[in-house]
Amino acid sequence: MLKDKVAVIYGAGGAIGGAVARAFASEGARVFLAGHHRPSVDAVADDIVSAGGCAEPATIDALDERAVDRHLQYVAGRAGRLDISFNAVGIRKPEALGVALVELDAEQFSLPITTYTKSNFLTARLAARRMVPNKSGVIMTVTTLHSRTGLPLVGGLGPAMAAVEALTRDLSAELAPHGIRVVGLRPQAMPETVTIREAYERRAKASGLTWDQFHGALASTTHPRRLMTLAEMANVAAFVASGKASGMTGTTVNLTMGSLDD
Ligand SMILES: NC(=O)c1ccc[n+]([C@@H]2O[C@H](COP(=O)([O-])OP(=O)(O)OC[C@H]3O[C@@H](n4cnc5c(N)ncnc54)[C@H](OP(=O)(O)O)[C@@H]3O)[C@@H](O)[C@H]2O)c1
Prior knowledge:
single chain; alpha/beta; seven-stranded parallel β-sheet; about 45% helix; binds NADP nicotinamide-adenine-dinucleotide phosphate
Protein backbone atom coordinates (compact mmCIF):
# COMPACT_ATOMS: atom_id res chain seq x y z
CA MET A 1 0.00 0.00 0.00
CA LEU A 2 2.91 2.41 0.64
CA LYS A 3 5.46 1.28 -1.92
CA ASP A 4 8.26 3.89 -2.26
CA LYS A 5 6.44 6.43 -0.06
CA VAL A 6 8.69 8.52 2.18
CA ALA A 7 7.45 8.76 5.77
CA VAL A 8 8.72 10.55 8.87
CA ILE A 9 7.48 9.20 12.19
CA TYR A 10 7.93 11.32 15.33
CA GLY A 11 8.06 9.44 18.63
CA ALA A 12 9.20 6.44 16.59
CA GLY A 13 10.84 4.77 19.58
CA GLY A 14 7.50 4.57 21.39
CA ALA A 15 4.81 1.90 21.31
CA ILE A 16 2.55 3.54 18.71
CA GLY A 17 5.36 5.18 16.71
CA GLY A 18 7.32 1.92 16.56
CA ALA A 19 4.30 -0.17 15.53
CA VAL A 20 3.31 2.35 12.86
CA ALA A 21 6.88 2.56 11.54
CA ARG A 22 7.02 -1.25 11.23
CA ALA A 23 3.64 -1.34 9.48
CA PHE A 24 4.57 1.48 7.07
CA ALA A 25 7.88 -0.23 6.24
CA SER A 26 6.24 -3.61 5.71
CA GLU A 27 3.90 -1.92 3.22
CA GLY A 28 6.94 -0.68 1.29
CA ALA A 29 7.55 2.80 2.71
CA ARG A 30 10.99 4.24 3.34
CA VAL A 31 10.76 5.36 6.96
CA PHE A 32 12.72 8.08 8.73
CA LEU A 33 12.44 7.49 12.46
CA ALA A 34 12.58 10.58 14.66
CA GLY A 35 12.84 9.71 18.32
CA HIS A 36 13.71 11.33 21.58
CA HIS A 37 16.23 8.92 23.06
CA ARG A 38 18.34 6.94 20.65
CA PRO A 39 18.29 3.32 21.93
CA SER A 40 14.55 2.77 21.46
CA VAL A 41 14.58 4.34 17.97
CA ASP A 42 17.61 2.28 16.97
CA ALA A 43 15.81 -0.88 18.10
CA VAL A 44 12.84 -0.11 15.81
CA ALA A 45 15.18 0.70 12.90
CA ASP A 46 17.14 -2.54 13.43
CA ASP A 47 13.90 -4.58 13.39
CA ILE A 48 12.75 -2.97 10.16
CA VAL A 49 16.11 -3.35 8.42
CA SER A 50 16.47 -6.99 9.50
CA ALA A 51 13.01 -7.65 8.07
CA GLY A 52 14.22 -6.27 4.72
CA GLY A 53 12.74 -2.77 5.09
CA CYS A 54 14.29 0.66 4.78
CA ALA A 55 14.64 2.76 7.97
CA GLU A 56 16.90 5.55 9.22
CA PRO A 57 16.88 6.55 12.90
CA ALA A 58 17.58 10.05 14.22
CA THR A 59 17.39 11.85 17.55
CA ILE A 60 14.97 14.76 17.24
CA ASP A 61 13.18 16.76 19.89
CA ALA A 62 9.74 17.22 18.32
CA LEU A 63 9.27 20.43 20.33
CA ASP A 64 12.38 22.02 18.81
CA GLU A 65 11.37 23.76 15.59
CA ARG A 66 14.91 24.06 14.27
CA ALA A 67 15.73 20.42 14.93
CA VAL A 68 12.55 19.23 13.17
CA ASP A 69 13.24 21.54 10.24
CA ARG A 70 16.88 20.41 9.90
CA HIS A 71 15.80 16.77 9.95
CA LEU A 72 13.18 17.36 7.23
CA GLN A 73 15.84 19.12 5.18
CA TYR A 74 17.97 16.01 5.57
CA VAL A 75 15.06 13.73 4.57
CA ALA A 76 14.36 15.84 1.49
CA GLY A 77 18.05 15.65 0.56
CA ARG A 78 18.19 11.85 1.00
CA ALA A 79 14.80 10.87 -0.40
CA GLY A 80 13.86 13.79 -2.62
CA ARG A 81 10.42 14.33 -1.07
CA LEU A 82 8.12 13.76 1.90
CA ASP A 83 4.84 11.85 1.55
CA ILE A 84 3.74 11.07 5.10
CA SER A 85 4.27 12.78 8.48
CA PHE A 86 3.04 10.81 11.50
CA ASN A 87 3.22 12.34 15.00
CA ALA A 88 3.13 9.68 17.73
CA VAL A 89 4.90 11.76 20.36
CA GLY A 90 3.67 11.00 23.83
CA ILE A 91 4.62 12.30 27.26
CA ARG A 92 4.46 9.93 30.15
CA LYS A 93 3.86 12.05 33.23
CA PRO A 94 1.93 9.70 35.43
CA GLU A 95 2.20 12.03 38.41
CA ALA A 96 -0.75 14.05 36.98
CA LEU A 97 -2.84 10.89 36.58
CA GLY A 98 -4.95 9.73 39.47
CA VAL A 99 -5.05 13.28 40.88
CA ALA A 100 -8.38 15.09 41.08
CA LEU A 101 -8.57 18.32 39.05
CA VAL A 102 -9.29 20.32 42.20
CA GLU A 103 -5.98 19.13 43.64
CA LEU A 104 -3.91 19.39 40.44
CA ASP A 105 -1.05 21.84 40.04
CA ALA A 106 -1.59 24.28 37.13
CA GLU A 107 1.74 23.41 35.49
CA GLN A 108 0.94 19.71 35.53
CA PHE A 109 -2.51 20.45 34.11
CA SER A 110 -1.07 22.54 31.25
CA LEU A 111 1.83 20.28 30.30
CA PRO A 112 -0.07 17.87 28.01
CA ILE A 113 -1.97 20.74 26.41
CA THR A 114 1.14 22.71 25.48
CA THR A 115 3.24 19.65 24.57
CA TYR A 116 0.77 17.88 22.30
CA THR A 117 -0.50 21.00 20.56
CA LYS A 118 2.97 22.47 19.99
CA SER A 119 4.55 19.26 18.79
CA ASN A 120 1.69 18.44 16.39
CA PHE A 121 1.59 22.02 15.14
CA LEU A 122 5.34 22.15 14.47
CA THR A 123 5.69 18.78 12.78
CA ALA A 124 2.57 19.35 10.65
CA ARG A 125 3.50 22.87 9.65
CA LEU A 126 7.05 21.99 8.65
CA ALA A 127 5.91 18.88 6.77
CA ALA A 128 3.20 20.83 4.95
CA ARG A 129 5.76 23.34 3.72
CA ARG A 130 7.55 20.44 1.95
CA MET A 131 4.31 18.83 0.70
CA VAL A 132 2.53 21.87 -0.74
CA PRO A 133 4.91 22.26 -3.73
CA ASN A 134 4.24 18.58 -4.66
CA LYS A 135 0.48 19.01 -4.13
CA SER A 136 0.39 15.75 -2.21
CA GLY A 137 0.99 14.34 1.25
CA VAL A 138 -0.64 12.89 4.35
CA ILE A 139 -0.27 14.30 7.88
CA MET A 140 -1.42 12.11 10.75
CA THR A 141 -2.10 12.71 14.44
CA VAL A 142 -2.93 10.43 17.39
CA THR A 143 -5.39 11.15 20.18
CA THR A 144 -7.35 9.17 22.75
CA LEU A 145 -11.03 8.95 23.64
CA HIS A 146 -10.43 11.58 26.34
CA SER A 147 -10.99 14.09 23.51
CA ARG A 148 -14.67 13.28 23.36
CA THR A 149 -15.77 11.99 26.72
CA GLY A 150 -15.48 13.07 30.35
CA LEU A 151 -13.15 10.89 32.38
CA PRO A 152 -12.02 11.37 35.96
CA LEU A 153 -8.41 11.66 37.20
CA VAL A 154 -6.69 12.28 33.84
CA GLY A 155 -5.45 15.84 34.39
CA GLY A 156 -5.17 17.98 31.24
CA LEU A 157 -5.30 15.07 28.81
CA GLY A 158 -8.91 15.72 27.75
CA PRO A 159 -8.36 19.34 26.67
CA ALA A 160 -5.03 18.32 25.06
CA MET A 161 -6.59 15.57 22.95
CA ALA A 162 -9.59 17.72 22.00
CA ALA A 163 -7.18 20.45 20.84
CA VAL A 164 -5.19 18.02 18.67
CA GLU A 165 -8.40 16.81 17.01
CA ALA A 166 -9.44 20.43 16.36
CA LEU A 167 -5.98 21.12 14.91
CA THR A 168 -6.37 18.04 12.66
CA ARG A 169 -9.62 19.46 11.25
CA ASP A 170 -8.23 22.98 10.82
CA LEU A 171 -5.04 21.79 9.12
CA SER A 172 -7.16 19.78 6.72
CA ALA A 173 -9.38 22.77 5.96
CA GLU A 174 -6.29 24.74 4.96
CA LEU A 175 -4.21 21.99 3.34
CA ALA A 176 -6.69 19.74 1.53
CA PRO A 177 -7.10 22.30 -1.27
CA HIS A 178 -3.34 21.81 -1.82
CA GLY A 179 -3.68 18.02 -2.13
CA ILE A 180 -2.66 17.22 1.46
CA ARG A 181 -4.86 15.04 3.65
CA VAL A 182 -4.84 15.42 7.44
CA VAL A 183 -6.28 12.54 9.46
CA GLY A 184 -6.12 11.52 13.11
CA LEU A 185 -6.37 8.13 14.80
CA ARG A 186 -8.19 7.79 18.11
CA PRO A 187 -7.39 4.43 19.70
CA GLN A 188 -8.82 3.79 23.16
CA ALA A 189 -6.05 1.96 25.00
CA MET A 190 -3.74 -0.82 23.98
CA PRO A 191 -2.92 -2.69 27.19
CA GLU A 192 0.40 -4.05 25.86
CA THR A 193 1.89 -0.50 25.98
CA VAL A 194 3.83 0.86 28.95
CA THR A 195 1.85 4.13 28.70
CA ILE A 196 -1.40 2.36 29.42
CA ARG A 197 0.06 0.10 32.06
CA GLU A 198 1.40 3.13 33.96
CA ALA A 199 -1.73 5.20 33.46
CA TYR A 200 -4.11 2.40 34.41
CA GLU A 201 -2.17 1.33 37.43
CA ARG A 202 -2.37 4.82 38.93
CA ARG A 203 -6.01 5.33 38.00
CA ALA A 204 -6.91 1.80 39.10
CA LYS A 205 -5.27 2.41 42.46
CA ALA A 206 -7.05 5.75 42.84
CA SER A 207 -10.36 4.00 42.04
CA GLY A 208 -9.67 1.16 44.51
CA LEU A 209 -9.42 -1.47 41.74
CA THR A 210 -6.67 -3.91 40.71
CA TRP A 211 -5.09 -3.62 37.23
CA ASP A 212 -7.04 -6.71 36.07
CA GLN A 213 -10.34 -5.33 37.35
CA PHE A 214 -9.68 -1.94 35.73
CA HIS A 215 -8.61 -3.53 32.44
CA GLY A 216 -11.68 -5.80 32.48
CA ALA A 217 -13.99 -2.87 33.17
CA LEU A 218 -12.56 -0.92 30.21
CA ALA A 219 -12.66 -3.91 27.88
CA SER A 220 -16.30 -4.47 28.79
CA THR A 221 -17.18 -1.03 27.34
CA THR A 222 -16.16 -2.09 23.81
CA HIS A 223 -18.49 -4.03 21.51
CA PRO A 224 -16.13 -7.06 21.16
CA ARG A 225 -15.40 -6.91 24.95
CA ARG A 226 -11.67 -6.53 24.41
CA LEU A 227 -9.19 -3.72 23.82
CA MET A 228 -7.39 -3.13 20.53
CA THR A 229 -3.89 -4.41 19.79
CA LEU A 230 -1.01 -2.26 18.55
CA ALA A 231 -0.89 -4.30 15.32
CA GLU A 232 -4.59 -3.59 14.62
CA MET A 233 -4.05 0.14 15.16
CA ALA A 234 -0.93 0.13 12.93
CA ASN A 235 -2.80 -1.63 10.11
CA VAL A 236 -5.39 1.15 10.12
CA ALA A 237 -2.58 3.73 10.13
CA ALA A 238 -1.05 2.15 6.99
CA PHE A 239 -4.42 2.16 5.23
CA VAL A 240 -5.12 5.79 6.16
CA ALA A 241 -1.65 6.85 4.97
CA SER A 242 -2.15 5.08 1.64
CA GLY A 243 -3.84 6.23 -1.54
CA LYS A 244 -6.68 3.81 -0.76
CA ALA A 245 -7.87 6.38 1.81
CA SER A 246 -7.78 9.27 -0.68
CA GLY A 247 -11.35 10.22 0.28
CA MET A 248 -10.49 10.67 3.94
CA THR A 249 -9.41 14.02 5.41
CA GLY A 250 -10.39 16.44 8.18
CA THR A 251 -11.40 13.65 10.52
CA THR A 252 -10.15 11.51 13.39
CA VAL A 253 -10.80 7.80 12.97
CA ASN A 254 -12.64 6.36 15.96
CA LEU A 255 -10.73 3.20 16.94
CA THR A 256 -12.49 2.69 20.25
CA MET A 257 -14.32 -0.42 19.02
CA GLY A 258 -17.71 0.86 20.15
CA SER A 259 -16.74 2.46 23.49
CA LEU A 260 -17.35 5.90 22.07
CA ASP A 261 -20.23 6.68 19.72
CA ASP A 262 -19.68 9.16 16.91
N1 LIG B 1 -0.64 3.53 24.31
C1 LIG B 1 -1.92 3.59 24.02
O1 LIG B 1 -2.68 2.61 24.15
C2 LIG B 1 -2.50 4.86 23.49
C3 LIG B 1 -3.87 4.88 23.14
C4 LIG B 1 -4.40 6.04 22.60
C5 LIG B 1 -3.59 7.13 22.42
N2 LIG B 1 -2.30 7.11 22.81
C6 LIG B 1 -1.51 8.31 22.62
O2 LIG B 1 -0.53 8.06 21.62
C7 LIG B 1 0.68 8.78 21.92
C8 LIG B 1 1.84 7.82 22.01
O3 LIG B 1 1.55 6.80 22.93
P1 LIG B 1 2.56 5.60 23.20
O4 LIG B 1 1.87 4.60 24.02
O5 LIG B 1 3.19 5.18 21.92
O6 LIG B 1 3.64 6.34 24.11
P2 LIG B 1 5.21 5.99 24.31
O7 LIG B 1 5.45 4.53 24.15
O8 LIG B 1 5.62 6.65 25.57
O9 LIG B 1 5.87 6.72 23.08
C9 LIG B 1 5.94 8.10 23.00
C10 LIG B 1 7.24 8.45 22.35
O10 LIG B 1 7.32 9.86 22.21
C11 LIG B 1 8.68 10.21 22.47
N3 LIG B 1 8.79 11.62 22.83
C12 LIG B 1 8.41 12.22 23.97
N4 LIG B 1 8.71 13.53 23.93
C13 LIG B 1 9.29 13.75 22.71
C14 LIG B 1 9.83 14.87 22.06
N5 LIG B 1 9.82 16.09 22.63
N6 LIG B 1 10.35 14.72 20.83
C15 LIG B 1 10.38 13.51 20.22
N7 LIG B 1 9.87 12.40 20.78
C16 LIG B 1 9.34 12.53 22.01
C17 LIG B 1 9.10 9.31 23.60
O11 LIG B 1 10.52 9.23 23.60
P3 LIG B 1 11.31 8.96 24.97
O12 LIG B 1 10.60 7.81 25.65
O13 LIG B 1 12.68 8.62 24.47
O14 LIG B 1 11.23 10.23 25.75
C18 LIG B 1 8.45 7.99 23.19
O15 LIG B 1 9.30 7.23 22.37
C19 LIG B 1 0.37 9.52 23.21
O16 LIG B 1 -0.12 10.78 22.85
C20 LIG B 1 -0.73 8.72 23.85
O17 LIG B 1 -1.53 9.50 24.71
C21 LIG B 1 -1.72 5.99 23.33
